[in-house]
Design a protein that fits this description.
283 residues, alpha/beta, six-stranded parallel beta sheet, three-stranded mixed beta sheet, 10 helices, 13 strands, globular
Amino acid sequence: MRMGPQEAVWIAGAAGRMGRAIEHHLSHTKYRILTTDAEIDITDLETATAFAAANRPDYVINCAGLARHDAAQDNPDAAYRINALGARNLAIASESVGATIVHLSTDDLFPAYMPYPVNEFEIPAPRHVFGKSKLAGERFVCDLNPRHIIVRSSWVYTALPDDMIVTAIEKARAGEPVEVPANQFACPTSCRTLARFVIACLESEELGTFHAACQGMCSRHEFIARALKLAGAPTSTLASRAVPDEGYRIELDNMMMRLTGIFEMPAWEDDLKDYLGIHGLLA
């Protein structure tokens, strides 16, 4: 069923960066958009199902989550409560009203070092509590609502004041040290591009699990260096670090996106340049 006029989209976790990006890019004239955050406790099943019953969404987009790795490691109960139980409750709530659920997930489901690009058919093996709790959430969604779309992405960035790009640009221009890991490799993807893919999923006939990361891979150091150059900021204070325990290498392969043809991700370099331009950050 394709989306059409008057269909309702419930964005849970709408105050987060992806929730805001998706709401911004959805047509507010074409769709009835319901946004909730802390005021609707998705970790309480009765609350989630009552909201769904009262509002009858056609699509539920789960942007809620505890995303800080250190917080998840220090408090596993909180991580599983939000990332797993919350996903379970939204899956039940969406299924109860016949809605499709879109669940945002992560590349942290895989081991730290993958010698080849990882497609959707690779068996997950998360290495820490955050990844394990996100995998548990995925499994609840798959088991409890057959009309599901799981979207795994990588290094999603924004132009918010506290995000890594803006912070690095400000420090570089102030002559302050900018230290970035050189042994962390993944696929940077702007929140704008990821939001556009999520909307493409809503407007397609597709269901299932999709990887959604920009094409190509780089280190965090290479990514920030390119961002600084595009912004016309000096790179003289940019330094690298390589703490062994912090290293990883994960490249997502968007195989399902490629096979279905519903969207095409840009190269990460092009996405970064376009995103900085949209937000007035290019030199």
